[in-house]
Write a structure and sequence with these properties.
Layout (H helix, E strand, L loop, with lengths): L1 H15 L5 H4 L16 H17 L36 E2 L2 E2 L26 E2 L6 E4 L4 E8 L8 E5 L7 E5 L3 H10 L20 E10 L5 E5 L4 E3 L4 E5 L16 E3 L4 E5 L4 H8 L5 H13 L9 E3 L4 E3 L4 E3 L7 E2 L8 E3 L13 E3 L10 E8 L29 H8 L1
Parallel strand pairs: 6-7
Antiparallel strand pairs: 1-2, 3-4, 4-5, 5-7, 5-20, 6-17, 8-9, 8-14, 8-20, 10-19, 11-13, 12-13, 14-18, 15-16
């Protein structure tokens, strides 16, 4: 009787949860939150973070990079070798390793995109060459006009203009059209395709019809502007500047965590990125060696913003043909290039490597560009080589494009005539 009562008591206690089950006594390898979701233990989080750090370090280049906050003195304004952050911020709520990013502020909105006046594409002298009216032939004035939009306002460049949904991450402008339509328009103006730049066995520049390119856009003051395309492009400043030194000049000591360093493997002193006047003077004060002084001054001059100096050449791209499919190569986005691609329709007349992001020599001139999304009319004018005038100046190509304050269809000359 007593045994039966004890058994009944134990059964009731087990049902009520007073006595833990064997499973409850086992230590859990994955502690649970109140909601029952699993979390990572401290040791596991540490292991994951360590692995993430190892992966990040292994992906860096062989040259050392400055370490912000190391406590060592570096030249004023020194920057890391790679302008791209190692661990860029992630949206609120997403994780990076074992941390959760919170409290990130939304960036302030930039200027609103500007729009061209509607009459700029309504001249009776313009003939649309495609259904969506983005490529226009101006035969009387011997030029082609393209309706484009700004798709990138800062960063390294491979193109000045690409096709929609192709190379927008490395091109200032995008065009909603097919490349062969632009090619056809240039041929209609009497242009003949030339030859793209080659590097085998030695560099040979692009050859063919020269094209003058102008940009029409509305600035932030609401004024219509027309400028040369080259004013939107400058030399790449975020790159290495190097000078050969078998060894450091006597008495010169460089901070291994600074931006000015010595690579004893390649025997060069190097600097990364733009150099300010203050940084130049600080570096010059480190050593009076003549070669060192000349190198630092050279780094400073080379990192100054410089407008691209090159002609635009109609090289004509080419065709892919395997017997079944024939495709115009510029349809991949290679309309107006600033890096020497064999697929380019229009290329630059100077050497500009297209071997990778780290070799690109041009970047967008951010301060001169209209806001992202702004409308831009690109004007392509085949250059007619004329004999120089007596004063040594070449006659300028005519321009029948609408100007600020000039009604559509009237040239600046007609406006002057009306005023008279």
């Amino acid at each position: 009787m007593t045994l039966r009562a004890v058994s009944l008591f134990l059964s009731l206690a087990l049902v009520a949860g007073c006595i833990p089950t064997p499973a409850d006594n086992e230590p859990s390898s994955t502690p649970k939150t109140k909601a029952g979701s699993e979390t990572t233990t401290t040791d596991e989080a540490g292991d994951a973070a360590a692995k993430a750090d190892d992966g990040a370090e292994s992906s860096e280049d062989s040259k050392p990079q400055p370490k912000p906050g190391s406590g060592k003195k570096t030249p004023a304004g020194a920057v890391e070798k790679n302008p791209i952050e190692k661990n860029p911020a992630t949206p609120v709520g997403e994780t990076t390793g074992s941390e959760v990013q919170t409290g990130l502020e939304e960036p302030e909105p930039g200027p609103k995109p500007t729009k061209l006046p509607p009459e700029i594409f309504k001249s009776d002298k313009l003939t649309p060459l495609n259904p969506n009216h983005t490529v226009f032939l101006d035969l009387p004035n011997k030029r082609l006009k393209l309706k484009t939009h700004v798709c990138l306002d800062r960063g390294m460049l491979e193109m000045l203009l690409c096709l929609k949904q192709t190379k927008e991450h490395e091109s200032i402008l995008t065009l909603d059209a097919e490349a062969f339509t632009v090619h056809t328009g240039l041929v209609a103006l009497g242009c003949e395709p030339g030859q793209p730049a080659t590097y085998d066995p030695v560099y040979q520049p692009a050859s063919g019809q020269k094209i003058d390119i102008f940009m029409h856009y509305v600035d932030l003051d609401g004024k219509l502007q027309r400028i040369e395309a080259g004013k939107w492009i400058r030399n790449s400043r975020f790159r290495y500047y190097e000078a050969e030194f078998e060894s450091l000049p006597a008495g010169l000591k460089l901070d291994p965590d600074g931006n000015l360093r010595y690579d004893d493997l390649n025997k060069v002193i190097f600097w990364y990125g733009p150099m300010t006047e203050e940084q130049r003077d600080e570096c010059l004060a480190l050593c009076k060696d003549e070669k060192f002084q000349k190198s630092i001054k050279g780094f400073y001059e080379e990192s100054r913003p410089k407008e691209i100096k090159a002609d635009w050449i109609f090289v004509g791209s080419g065709f892919f043909d395997d017997g079944e499919v024939k495709r115009y190569l510029a349809e991949g986005g290679y309309v107006i290039c600033v890096a020497n691609f064999g697929q380019a329709m229009i290329d630059v007349s100077v050497s500009s490597s297209a071997d990778g992001q780290e070799t690109l020599v041009f970047e967008a001139w951010h301060e001169r560009l209209p806001p992202l999304g702004s409308e831009v009319m690109v004007e392509l004018v085949p250059r007619i080589e004329k004999k120089k005038e007596k004063d040594g100046e070449k006659a300028a190509a005519p321009d029948d494009s609408p100007k600020p304050g000039v009604p559509a269809g009237k040239t600046a000359a007609e406006k002057v005539s009306d005023a008279g």
